[in-house]
Amino acid sequence: MKLRMSRFLSCLSILAFLGCDRMPGKPQEATPIVIGSPAWTQSTFNTNCRGCHSQGAEGAAIPLIDAGYWKVATDAQVIQVLEQGQGVLMPSYLDSNGGPLSSDQIAAFVKGMRTLWGDGSSGGQGGISGTVVAGNASAGSQVFASACASCHAAGGSAGSVTDPMYLKLISNQGLWSAVVYGRAALGSPAWNQPMPKHPNGLTPTEVADVVCWIAQSRPMSSANAQVNSIPKDKNVSDSK
Amino acid sequence: MNREALIQIVKQPVQWIEDRTGVIAFSTPLLSHHVPRSAKWWYVFGSATLMFFTIQIVTGVCLGTMYAPSASNAWESLRYIDEEIPLGWMLRALHGWSSSAMVVMMAIHMLQVFMHGSFKFPRELNWITGVFLLLTVLALAFTGQVMRWDQDAYWGLGIGAAIVDRVPVFGDQMRALMLGGPIIGGETLNRFFALHVFILPGAAIGLVGVHMALIMKNGISEMPKPGEIVVPSTYRKGFEERMEKSGVPFFPDAAQRDMVFCGVCLILLVFLAAYYGPFGPGGMPDPTLINTNPRPDYPFMWIFGAVSLLPPASETAIMLISPVVGIVILVAVPFLSNSGERAPSRRPGMMLLAVFVVMAIVALTWEGVTSPWSPVMDGWSALPTPTQFVKGRTPLQMQGAVVFQYAQCRNCHELGGFGGKRGPALDEIATRMSPDQIVRQVQQGGGNMPAFGKNLNSAQMTAIVGFLSTLRPENEADSSIPGAQLPLPIKSPLVVNSPFTGTGVPAEISAGVSSR
């Protein structure tokens, strides 16, 4: 009798012990996420970039989930933007600048974004380069009249791009990208594509000229010197 | 071997030890001392607190053998305990739940002592050591939360550092002392580890010893009866006489109730631990991956509930002064009245006060749990501007939408149903405010909104006001555009590969992007 009781008890306790590992409180095993993996890239983008660059084509800043962008932009250019920031509103993400990512992580992140959203190319295609080059303002004013004024002239449907307040917030690189990539979803044309009056789009020189002309309206003051000086070596308005 | 010899074999070593230490002579009176017959179920809470404390020490020592107190390994070592050590998760669950249970039990014990006036003569020091025990245990709970080294820990430290920062003159030094440097990093964890496993438990054990010695010296108080008043000059004599006459020995009469209650508590504890599991660790304390809404552990929830209700102008004063005032009042309780009536029915004012304090703490805890006081820290970089607010905007207004993110307005304000809830949703702000009023609100802040005056230049201000002035319901027509839906807030289980494998997870938490 006694023996049976103790046998019963020990069976019970072994069962209880085994059962413990199946109790509801046992934490689920977490699946590790590898830095550079698609899941990591997506979640890093979701927490750090989506607010401005959006998850589609209609964000407040230039869309990055866009094959057209990755076709033109090179890894080096995007890495430079993430490490240095751009203009006044795009922060630097490098840890030594107070950002959250190490330079290794930035490189892995850029590679991951290209894999997720690019078309398989490594950038540098599409006729016009992704980085701003020097232009000529008076030639630019003619490009503007023929290609842009229909939408951007004073009182035009798309609003002014020569508003000094606007120009204080956007860098020359930002203007360049706005012209090259456009915003199809918002009715802003991409000028590396054919357009009605410009069957080949604009040439790189024409883009450089029009950006140079627009940038002239930016009020020069110490407060926005950084807008102009980024990227330093490619300052359009200095070069005419 | 005969019976006598057997007894002798057992007895001899016991006698040898008793001869050298006197442990039996010492503990017999502990067990057999008389306690009031009236001490019934009201008196079990102190013992239960002691039991939880013992569990904390035992489980804590076990955890101490496996925990890695370094910034790069702490979080991973908790996962290791949870997943690799058999029933390691149970150990962590018990340690976590027992810590909360201990705080609750302590509060109940204290409330009972207060309501029964047991702190009156000659037990003033019992009360005061109890108050310091409470503070030590709360400090243990706070430092314990830091041991998890996850986002909640990071956040709790951030709030703590911000409070310390407000101390006039010495703010910077005190912050450096607390964090071991200007930022939360590896030094911080070492500091809190030393506090959590050496300094505070040492202090607690010492205080428990003094508390127990005082109980032995002064006896356990009787149930209060209306009319039986405490007169310091005659109390001791009367108490001793009554104990002689009508007291019962602590063991087994009173102890059996303690044991039953502790047993029930223990079963509940194991159930909670088995069912709800360990606390955290939450997400990695890695600013790239902030995607949770960090909250303090329950014992501190009411403090943060209170902070969320404070008018901002008075925050500094209240946050710094009220803890000091609170502690002084608690310590002063037995000096404010150490004689007279003990019965609750004869101390209605005190009872009201106790009820008020309990209700305030419950209500503030509720506020802390439910209120959206905590800004969505990564709202600015994670929540996109809704499509309907982007379409048909001029370039300047578009930049305004970016400034709205950049200046972290989104952390407190919703657009399209996503964003912080600290301030009102701004979807239709243009119908409520003129551009001038918006400028004033943004520049001067007010009502829990910080003043942005200096932080936005004229272009940023113009752009943001330009953008906000377009937010009106007419635009709702646009929201039917396909693909305009927002994703749900991200909830992916984010675990970064182990730092052991060298994937470069930052070991130190820098100030992070969300604090800029």
Describe the structure in your own words:
- The complex is a heterodimer of chains A (240) and B (516).
- Among the domains of chain A are: 38-117, Cytochrome c-like domain (Cytochrome Bc1 Complex, Chain D, domain 2, Orthogonal Bundle); 137-216, Cytochrome Bc1 Complex, Chain D, domain 2 (Orthogonal Bundle), CATH 1.10.760.
- In chain A, 48% of the residues lie in helices and 0% in strands.
- Chain A has helices spanning 2-20, 38-48, 50-53, 67-72, 75-84, 103-117, 137-152, 164-169, 172-181, 204-215, 225-229.
- In chain A, helix 2 packs across helix 6 (103-117), helix 7 (137-152) packs across helix 10 and helix 9 packs across helix 10.
- In chain A, 42% of the residues are buried.
- The model of chain A is unreliable at 222-226 and 228-240 (pLDDT under 50).
- Chain B has three domains: 1-31, no CATH class; 40-222 and 231-285, Cytochrome Bc1 Complex, Chain C, CATH 1.20.810.10; 379-514, Cytochrome c-like domain (Cytochrome Bc1 Complex, Chain D, domain 2, Orthogonal Bundle).
- Chain B contains 19 helices and four strands.
- Chain B has helices at residues 3-21, 23-32, 45-64, 74-83, 88-115, 124-147, 151-165, 171-179, 186-218, 232-246, 250-276, 298-309, 315-336, 348-370, 379-382, 395-406, 429-432, 435-444, 458-468, and strands at residues 34-35, 248-249, 414-415, 418-419.
- In chain B, the strands form two sheets. Chain B has a two-stranded antiparallel ribbon with strand order 1-2.
- Chain B is elongated, with a radius of gyration of 29 Å.
- Chains A and B meet through helix 2, helix 3 and helix 8 of A and helix 4, helix 5, helix 11, helix 15 and helix 16 of B.
Relevant terms:
heterodimer, A: 240 residues, mainly alpha, Cytochrome Bc1 Complex, Chain D, domain 2, 11 helices, 0% strand, disordered C terminus, B: 516 residues, Cytochrome Bc1 Complex, Chain C, two-stranded antiparallel sheet, 2% strand
